[in-house]
From TrEMBL:
This is Branched-chain amino acid ABC transporter permease. The chain crosses the membrane at residues 9-25, 31-50, 57-77, 83-105, 112-128, 162-180, 210-235, 247-272, 284-310. The lineage of its organism: Bacteria, Bacillati, Bacillota, Bacilli, Bacillales. Its main location: membrane. It is found in: Cell membrane. InterPro entries: ABC_transp_permease, LivM-like. It is a multi-pass membrane protein.
């Protein structure tokens, strides 16, 4: 039984379930919601890499998400560039801006870093909102093209776009997994646990923190570009602090510093939001206390709680088996 529910089999099962979902649901609305959830997951993975595994909370993540979206929109709508070159350039532009911000931001620590990135995120929002000649201001950008066809493969239908975003999400998860289990990922974790100790061991903390920050902005840029091509209309609100709050909720509820936390948290909150739309005006009153309770009673979120419970169960089981063996030997 334990072999059936091994981590590998669970992952394969979830991928198969996601692949079969369009044929089971047969509802364009659910397909739209889940595709959008996949895009948020990609953004949350970027935030989780920085906040969960490196220990630096960026409150400018929605700003970089917006940069990725507007980069794709401006390149395709105003510069009339093809979709795929624009899609590849959008995360690069986001990463370049993230690099420049990170060089300055990472000279601060802890809450000073959070406050600084909060200011950066608000500045990005103001630039998008006020620079009407470039971004369109409050009118936003319309007419952003959907993903272009790849040879004979058409990406114009909702199902095709669903599989396209799902493929990008799986690639992002694979990349995050490889990063976390590499020497670089262990360096990130060492900085999170004790930056002073990591520094005393000869680890270049500035270099590794900057790398983590830049990678997080890259994933935010990818998610933003996907969002723009999926919704095909963007406005300044996508860079608002409310988006950062939503991403934080997804990450913390699912499990900060865990690999599957962004998936669990995003799916759960998106599902709750869809089923509680009549309480949309009071969402902050609902998710605020929920977030507070989780931070107090389960700091590592749902995934961390389940993982801790399962670890304790295995330890108790091992102890009981050892006790049973000792009693049998005495008899």
């Amino acid at each position: 039984m334990a072999a059936i529910f091994s981590k590998r089999n669970v992952v394969i099962g979830l991928i198969v379930l996601a692949a079969l979902f369009p044929y089971v649901a047969r509802n364009d609305y659910y397909l739209h919601v889940l595709t959008l959830a996949f895009i948020w997951m990609i953004a949350v993975y970027g935030l989780n890499l920085l906040a969960g595994f490196t220990g630096y909370l960026s409150l400018a993540h929605a700003g970089f998400f917006a940069i990725g979206a507007y980069a794709l929109g401006l390149l395709t709508v105003k510069a009339e560039m093809g979709f795929w070159p624009a899609f590849l350039l959008a995360p690069v532009i986001t990463t370049g801006i993230g690099f420049l911000v990170g060089i300055i931001a990472l000279r601060t620590k802890e809450h000073f870093f959070a406050i600084y990135t909060l200011c950066v995120g608000y500045i990005i929002y103001l630039v998008i909102d006020k620079w009407e000649g470039l971004t369109g201001g409050v009118r936003g950008l319309i007419g952003i093209p959907a993903p272009a066809d790849i040879g004979p493969i058409s990406l114009s239908t909702p199902i095709a776009q669903y599989y396209f975003v799902l493929t990008i999400l799986l690639l992002v998860i694979l990349v995050i997994y490889r990063i976390i289990h590499s020497l670089t990922g262990k360096t990130f974790i060492a900085i999170r646990n004790s930056e002073d100790l990591a520094l005393s061991l000869g680890i270049s903390t500035i270099k590794n923190k900057l790398l983590s920050f830049v990678l997080s902005t890259f994933f935010a840029g990818v998610a933003g570009a996907l969002y723009a091509s999926f919704i095909r209309f963007i406005g300044p609100d996508i860079g608002n602090l409310n988006i950062t709050f939503d991403l934080l909720v997804y990450m913390i509820v699912g499990g900060i510093g865990t690999l599957s936390g962004p998936i669990v948290g995003t799916l759960l909150i998106v599902w709750l939001s869809q089923n509680l739309q009549f309480l949309q005006d009071y969402r902050m009153l609902i998710f605020g206390p929920l977030l507070t309770l989780i931070v107090i009673f389960s700091p590592r979120g749902i995934v961390g709680f389940i993982a801790g419970w399962f670890t304790n169960w295995k330890l108790r089981r091992k102890v009981n088996i050892n006790q049973a063996q000792e009693q049998a030997e005495e008899v």
